[in-house]
């Protein structure tokens, strides 16, 4: 089923590349079986619409000037100068001046089909083959793409050229809610973005990308021991993100000679263009792979351990979790992104080789060790800074233990050696002396388990 | 000094508080504190004792605004009187460092940004200026000398990713001084890297942390490369340079050949009065009263995050009032926007914020509680002020070579 779709897509693309465009016929042929079934006898009054992007080849091509397209009220009353968008409205207005008026009848014969081109030469719709079928449509297009953005949203200061776009936006602005992977809801986009960047849920991101690929072939998740990760979708950003990250992934894979190479897993993969197609292919190949079990727990725990001593985890995570992509053809779009990254990768690769040779248990132990040593070198006790301030502390002790010894200035004021204050606060609130991750429980993937309160709306993890 | 009659003093404290006029007791902290500061500068030890004792009775870091002010300023005054400021400050710094983790820092700063535009105002203004100045460039290098732990950058990364089809390459070099824990910066760097990857922005992150003082920063350490467009972002940074070294530091920034320098500072003058303690004290009291007020009105009544910020605030107060010289940690002597302008004009020319950026800032303020607004700088000064109840509190300005 999927390979059939892929074939049709490939045919279409070939056509497009050959002819520079596709005639409506060819598209219908290619997608015919996949389109929703249309009525063969539509009600007579309904206008026949061409497929999008395919203007009627017999239609009259009209090229209006920018001035005409931007003009809002072309029909002007000669008496009072009031402008109208439509001639009919002007005629009705003229009645009020007791002027002769005439409403035009709808033309009796079949209306000639008209299509409109954009006057802007650099625009794709300047080409008659990509003309738009609607006068209002071309007006809005020209205004949006090539016009000045005069309408500004009050709440978020987004700008629009077309008034109706601005109105539509204003209705929904501020009502949209953003949900982070961690479950927190936000009404503000900027706080959502900032939160997301620092959120621990982002650590699961690479896992999610893998899962996203396999959404098409849903059984994939079972083969990965990561069932606790839910592939949730961030509103409105999923597509763009997946596309961008896919580009990065594909590109990365081709640049590195991955030591976890399993050349037989992936045959030649041709990136065909749309993300979904590529994801499908990827899913297909993974499915058919017999070497999948090689992605075992130890490798994954290495991948997702956060305490790698590498200075940049970028290399470690991406190259390891895409085990054998050395044969993937590089996506053209991702090329410029990788300018400075290969160097990073090569150094990371050697490190990965060394570790992946050891057993799963050893890996987990190592990950735990690394976690502890990379935290703050805590001096073990709280005494050392205190020790330095013994003098001051002694004097304060008097009052602190609630005996009044008013012999010194210092005794009048309860201790302000902040170390003691901190003790008081800690005792009062029962919080751990230090918050570092060294002692926290870690799940088997090496990701810290958070002992803090549950997420709530506007609760901060 | 002896204090042989506690009861006597107790009586005078309650006398003070039994004043008939309710308004007089409302801002009791300011009055008592000022009296004490005066006593200290006059070296009237008897008076100092009495006032310190009284303040101690009434102060509490967990009380209302007045009690908090009394508590934090009392600590500073006490250290000033006993000349134990530096020792006390060092202790409080090391305590802070040990109790701060990535999680706690993140929690505090993100919550602060959620309830108050104090920092986000500067971020939005700077990001807007940076995006406009570096428009069209393919390689960006931002040198970030801030005290906001990179919370400014996610929105900039998102803007870079969405405004054009091709995102430019961004290199971020963070200059961290002793106050910002090294471990925290590592974690932050990892997160930034991951987020940039998510956004599809090619990204490099680097931290310069071996400086004991900010004015030791030199061009060589930044590793500037050919063909990259440089932006320098200073949020609460210039005030961390010792007063005497500020001009040289600004000149050093000029040698980095940046396209834009964004400066955000808190609007207060702690430098003009170094000789007269009482005058300096007044200004300090004025500024921090406003700050604590904004914290009180922005956060919910019981908030650990606010407490953390207040403690940080008390350390600053201690540093300004009770520590002479630059031996311990970063300087905290703020200057007003107009003063910074006079310094910066030597090496740069001011670049006013575009209308689009101002609109963005207005939209930003709308998302917070009422009380905040914008005010353009006037006269010799340039830039924009964030105001709280018509009082300017934060100043932001962009500069070009």
TrEMBL record, chain A:
One Gene Ontology cellular component annotation held by this UniProt entry: nucleus
Q: Which domain of life is it from?
A: Eukaryota
Residue ranges of region Disordered?
A: 37-56
Ranges for the C2H2-type domain? 75-97
Chain segments annotated as coiled-coil in the UniProt record: none
Q: Which InterPro entries match?
A: C2CH-3rd_BIRD-IDD (IPR055187), C2CH-4th_BIRD-IDD (IPR055185), C2H2-2nd_BIRD-IDD (IPR055186), IDD1-16 (IPR031140), Znf_C2H2_sf (IPR036236), Znf_C2H2_type (IPR013087)
Q: Do you know which Pfam families this protein is assigned to?
A: C2CH-3rd_BIRD-IDD, C2CH-4th_BIRD-IDD, C2H2-2nd_BIRD-IDD, zf-C2H2
Q: Which SUPFAM superfamilies match?
A: beta-beta-alpha zinc fingers
Show the PROSITE patterns listed in the entry. ZINC_FINGER_C2H2_1, ZINC_FINGER_C2H2_2
N-terminal signal peptide: none
Molecular function GO terms recorded: DNA-binding transcription factor activity; zinc ion binding
Recite the UniProt keywords alphabetically. Metal-binding, Repeat, Transcription, Transcription regulation, Zinc, Zinc-finger
Q: Does the keyword Isomerase apply?
A: no
**Functional description taken from the UniProt entry:** Transcription activator that acts as a flowering master switch in both long and short days, independently of the circadian clock. Promotes flowering upstream of HD1 by up-regulating FTL1, FTL4, FTL5, FTL6, EHD1, HD3A and RFT1. Seems to repress FTL11 expression. May recognize the consensus motif 5'-TTTGTCGTAAT-3' in target gene promoters.
| Protein name (database record) | Protein EARLY HEADING DATE 2
TrEMBL record, chain B:
Q: Where is this region: VHIID?
A: 109-174
Residue ranges of the motif VHIID = 140-144
Q: Which GO terms describe its molecular function?
A: DNA-binding transcription factor activity; sequence-specific DNA binding
Where does it sit, as one GO cellular component term? nucleus
Keyword terms, alphabetized: Transcription, Transcription regulation
Which terms does the UniProt entry file under GO BP? regulation of DNA-templated transcription
Q: Which domain of life is it from?
A: Eukaryota
Report the InterPro entries cross-referenced here: TF_GRAS
Region annotated SAW sits at 322-400
Q: Does the keyword Transcription apply?
A: yes
Q: Which family does it belong to?
A: Belongs to the GRAS family.
**What is the protein's name according to its record?**
(wild Malaysian banana) hypothetical protein
- Native species of this protein? Musa acuminata subsp. malaccensis (Wild banana)
